[in-house]
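Predict the holo structure. Ligand: 4-fluoro-L-phenylalanine.
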Amino acid sequence: MQERGQFSSRLGFILAAAGSAVGLGNLVAFPVMASKNGGAAFLFIYLFFVAFICYPVMMAEISMGRATNRNPVGAFSELSGGDKRWRLAGMLAILTPFMIAVFYTVITVWLVVYIKEVFTGNLRGLADDTTFGGIVSSPSLFGYLIALLAVIFLILLGGVKGGIERLARVLMPTLAVMLILLTIFVLTLDNASVGVSYYLVPDFSRIDLSVINGALSQAFFSLSLGMGILITYGSYFSREDNIPASTRMVAIADTSIAFFAGLLILPAIFAFDPNTNTDDLSTSSVGLIFSFLPKIFLSMELAVGYTGASIVASVFFVLVFFAALTSLVSIIEIPICCWMDEFKISRKKAVAIQAVLLTVFAVPATMSLGISDFFTNFTSYGGVSKSFFDLISDVFYETILPLVGFIVCVFCAHRWKVSGLKSELVVGDPNFEGSWLEKYINFSLGTVIPAVLLIVFISTVSQIYFA
Ligand code: PFF
């Protein structure tokens, strides 16, 4: 078997994991959720969940990967002594990223089309209400799809260090600088301060059970948990390095970017219309990026001219594209790693297999928004007609992540045992032994954390499928 890849350093791991974590969840879903749910009040709850629920689960996933040097299927299997039931859990942690990649690819293709439109001077067209529907139902999407897939698989052919890490080393710092510059610019617009206070003044009256539930799902999703990603990235992480400290850096980077995205998007919205009622903002990230934001950018025409507004819009869309690309590359690596480990094949072959499989699923998903009637009205549940794209997004994006997280916790606490996890965490971090963190994990990983995740899973299922 060929040698498995490894990140070149701790920083390489942190950048790659942050590249995975920073995505549409941070740049779009987080600002909207925060604005609708009490601003800073939501932020406090979110931070609480990141620290007390997500951080331990992140460490557990990374440790499983590093202890076994395997993908999720191999990791569950090896740590359970070859138990078939746990191997099945590993398969769920491969199927999930596989399917998420399918619909995330489709969204990224739309982003590419938007970037092309803004670059060719058509921001005004994008701000028109009918444009989005026209773009997603146009067969010309297939050309962009093939081009995007070619880029992604070429990066993945480069392997862990030469592909994934190299991409993150270039794109992540660029993304951070673009985000900060754009935020500073937006903050100088008239009425931006209304958005800032809307975002940062806590309104605790908005907090209820569904907001708390939403905050946890959002944190989980934003940190790329339950997708097998951190298990796989853990398997590329050096045994000399410190898991708790590196994980902390990834969580801080991801949360900071989400916070800055709020500081960009809300003031932009209020500068556009100071009387915006945030309750009216779409809950869907997709609706917000593709339908609402082009209007906001166009409204900047008055202040900075059409070219200025188009430049701001292109910086924003390129930024979102970079975030989506690094997330996509990370998630497609999971099945590739699995094919390499489990079937003992070369990276080249695994990449080729995955390219075929992803294309086979991405094509019908692309056809789900009007190109094909069959895939557009694929099924119905919860009283609504659903496309093939919706089905994948509902099952694998909205629902299953907390369940995978629950399984990881139960596995680590009760099968691998907290002592097994601990012996991995002390490698590279001798101070872990006897620390507060160790005591907290001992107490919570097999009890409170999985209980909370199970509750979130059950309530999501009842909301989506039995509404
Ligand atoms: N953490 C990512 C986000 O916040 O958007 C979630 C993600 C989605 C990761 C899709 C990877 C991916 F392909």
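The mean pLDDT is 93. The two ends are 49 Å apart (CA to CA).
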